[in-house]
Amino acid sequence: MQYTPRPKRGLMLQKKLRHGAFRAFILESLDRRQLLSSYSTADYYPFAPGETWKYSVIDDGVAGTSTTTTESATYKGTPVLAFVESEKTDSNSTTTEYQTFSRSKGVRLLADFEVDADERLDVIGETAFLPGTLTIGTNTTFPAAAVTISLHTDDFDANGTGTANVTVSPKAIGSITTDSGLIFTDVIKVATHAVISYSLKSSAFKGSGKIDITDTSYYERGVGRVKSVSLGTQVITINGQSATQKVNMTELLTSSSRVGLTAKVANGAHRDRYEWR
Questions:
Q1: Residue 275: inside a domain, yes or no?
Q2: Residue 203 belongs to domain spanning
Q3: 44 phi and psi, to 5 degrees?
Q4: N or C terminus: which one in the chain shows less Cβ crowding within 10 Å?
């Protein structure tokens, strides 16, 4: 029995790790700007209920779609925002992430629950996602985070633990046009490097793995994530046998309840704050 974990976008364990080609942008010009170097994460990562983002997905060469919605919730007595993602590629899965946000701690993931056909994967533990402030050229390395893992299938149940080491690196501010025709004029590019080690054990197998992945995401002010590319590898060992897999996945925004804000933001005074190098 071989189990391949799905890589999650929030980098707790990532969504199903598969490799493949990804769709290119028609135009992408990310240029560094002067004057401002620090930006509030809240401006680029909308943290509000009732929002929707729809993406085209290329995962292991398989085209698909995903839809993410947000809703207010409570997790173990803590008010959270639930990000519910439904993905349709070579299979249909639904993932629910419970997140919190504060200026001091930034965006944190408290738990992640994924259902895919006859499988359910639960990942529980506070994991850093984004700092409260994004400073161009400044890396933020978070303390190692411990998580517990439970995998439930029709054939077996497995349990284990994992450790995530995450570094977030804001790279540039600029503009971007997607191949779906959406134009964004105030985009921050953020690279997140994660090294995740985990182990799982059941009556059927004993396994472990190590994921080394870099996720590059592009966030538009007032809209949120408009593009992400995940590249990396993972090594999986099951009952003493090891295999290496590549990760190559992209998501491109096709529509969102937040896109209506783009024109207002793009024509706002903030556009005049920047000088192009």
A1: no
A2: 27-268
A3: -110, -15
A4: C
